[in-house]
Amino acid sequence: MCSINHDLKAIFIHIPKTAGTYIADVLHKYYGFKNYYITRPDHQQFCGSYDNSIKSHENKIHGTLMYYKTSPHCNQIMGMTPEKWDTYYKFCFIRNPYDKIVSGWNYVNKNKYPFMFYLNKPFKKNAWDYWHVLMPQVRHIINEKGKIGVDFIGLNENLEDDFDKVLTHLGLKNIHRQGKKNAKKHEVFYKYYNQPILNKVNSLLNEDFIHLSKYYKKIENIKDFIQYYSSNQSFENYKLKEENNIQLSNDTSTSSSQSLDIISSFISLLENGESESEKGTSSLLSS
After folding, report:
1. Structural domains in the chain (count)
2. pTM here?
3. 250 CB neighbour count, 10 Å cutoff
4. How far apart (Å, rounded) are the C-alpha atoms in residues 205 and 136?
5. For helices 97-108 and 195-204, what crossing angle results, to 10°?
């Protein structure tokens, strides 16, 4: 989902399971943003596949920014141009990957699969599952050049304070009521982990641990993991840096043509039946 206010020249890029629905609803209700949830006419060609789980933009390759920014159809509906995409203030919110994947699993898990079984289940996950659970968050905010394409990254763990920073930047007063959407109760996330699960999640979400490392650190040992998160629940102890405008390092950014080659390779992996969780997710931002 994209939320746009042309008067404010601002765009909210929604990343699933980061309180994005709450932010989008608040932006629409109180601050004049319009929410867009659109399916591209070329969805199957652009994303490499289509299945019955898809409600709009859900897929296994492209995140929110690329999906909307590169579609003439979406841009016409949204009143966007390349110049507006380049000059509007773009912001998003991210969430601790270890926490987000548990939240995503809990959200889509209608069959009540245990967490480890779900991560390793032998049949392919559909686009809806992949979009909410397994797609790395950084995939939602990279542009066609393979670089971070937003101006501000807020944190779910510091939601209201970071949202206030966005409103202040836009010259708005905070007039909304606090709350959350799409929240389902479950145990605190670190209680779902053991060493095999930690290894699996580190592999699945490696892109995030590489490119969002200034916000969340990767932990390899389960004892260190449990000790760290059981004793550091507050935002201040998440080992976060203050800067919120980040770029990928030169050795991991890609040119537009390289990005397209990487995407084509990923599509081939999916078509050949290779595990999208083990090999597909690690390729988009490496070349």
Report:
1. 1
2. 0.81
3. 6
4. 6
5. 100
